[in-house]
Amino acid sequence: MAFYRTCPDCGAHLDPGEQCTCHDEDVIRRQEKEKAEQRIMKMIKEERNGQLRLAV
Question: What angle do CA 54, 28, 46 make, to 5 degrees?
């Protein structure tokens, strides 16, 4: 008889007392995406006419 539980979010089979890391991974991915977007926005400048250009 196997003793495990299934994560309701990702379906992983977990040992008794084990915590699933699927939420931690989602948070890390979201933070990395936000950081990448911030880096891109720092490289882009908006001109007076509304056009976007790379700030070199």
Answer: 15
